[in-house]
Specification:
Elements (H helix, E strand, L loop, with lengths): L12 E2 L6 E3 L2 E3 L18 H17 L6 E4 L3 E5 L8 E6 L6 H13 L5 E5 L8 H7 L3 E12 L13 E5 L3 H11 L5 H11 L10 E8 L2 E10 L4 E8 L8 H15 L4 E5 L5 H7 L2 E11 L4
Helix pairs in contact: 4-5
Length: about 300
């Protein structure tokens, strides 16, 4: 990942500033795009590390764009404070420290988020240290939020012979209006206040062929029914925000948009894609060829207003 490492919290950085192919009925309708970078094959022994680093890299990259965001990246923790009340974009995404200093560092990090009145998450993976960091978090007021498998796919061998939704159309998002529809589809049924926050965050991100984040919408009959986000990382392509509306679930729409995103990653020169899988999506990913390499857990600290 190549994230800068430095000693101590004093080095905190502040940012104060926004082809066409067909397969089994799915059609990707946007024009050809240039390769972003060419990746070499990753040995199995490093895949879990690449999963962790790629997830953290995405969070850090977004933080460097958002107005008012703060980011601290040193040899012990990487934390991101976005400035907006959306816990996914507020949290610790890498942590490795001596057991003797764990509680002190946790307290320092908590102070950063409490001072901004932001609920946040602390993400743990196989490289997190000390090994009993989970216990330290629980003793400091965190609660377990979720644990998902960290998965990776060799893009050269992905299985595309899977039924998908008939007449599915997958498009890239390139305008503000399209982004608004993407968010409304992804967060279907959410309160307007939540949608407003999401639009404020994602509206800061550039929507172009050269952008490291590529948004996709899946449509049936010109109606958006599915979403996906592809992050073009330093070591792997990262898949986020695969979602489908309730009325089209288990009809191949999630598979269609996932395959479209993975084909795009491969076309841009990537050898590997990574993600964390929800219970709803894990079987789809396994059929495509993703394999589980680690567990990624999140612990939430809620800040009371």
């Amino acid at each position: 990942m190549g994230l800068e490492q430095s000693a101590g919290f004093q080095r905190r950085k502040h940012i104060k500033s926004g082809l066409k192919f067909s397969t089994k009925g799915a059609v990707y309708v946007n024009g050809p795009q240039r390769p972003f970078r060419i990746e070499q094959a990753v040995p199995d022994s490093r895949i879990s590390q690449v999963i962790e680093e790629s997830l953290a890299e995405y969070q850090a990259r977004v933080a460097r764009v958002l107005p008012g965001a703060e980011l601290s990246d040193d040899d012990r923790v990487l934390w991101v404070s976005s400035g907006v009340p959306f816990s996914f974009y507020n949290g610790v995404f890498r942590s490795s420290m001596n057991i003797a200093e764990a509680d002190a560092i946790i307290a320092q990090v908590k102070e950063q988020f409490v001072s901004r009145n932001l609920t946040f998450t602390w993400q743990l993976g196989p490289s997190s240290y000390p090994l009993n960091l989970t216990q330290h978090l629980l003793e400091n007021g965190f609660v377990h939020d979720e644990t998902e498998p960290g998965m990776a796919l060799d893009l050269a061998s992905m299985n595309v012979q899977i039924p998908t939704a008939a007449n599915a159309e997958i498009q890239t998002v390139r305008t503000e209006t399209e982004m608004d529809r993407w968010i409304e589809t992804w967060a279907c049924g959410a309160p307007r206040s939540f949608l407003k926050i999401c639009k404020a965050i994602h509206g800061q991100l550039t929507l172009s062929d050269d952008s490291p984040w590529q948004y996709y919408v899946g449509k049936l009959g010109n109606e958006p029914v599915a979403t996906a986000l592809l992050y073009l990382g330093e070591q792997a392509a990262v898949v986020h925000w695969i979602a489908t509306l309730p009325q089209v679930r288990r009809k191949g729409m999630g598979t269609a948009i996932t395959l479209a995103v993975l084909r795009e990653a491969r076309a841009r020169g990537y050898s590997m894609a990574v993600l964390t899988a929800s219970d709803d999506g894990v079987n789809i990913y396994r059929r495509i060829g993703f394999k589980e390499y680690c567990k990624i857990s999140k612990f939430k600290y809620s800040v009371r207003e």
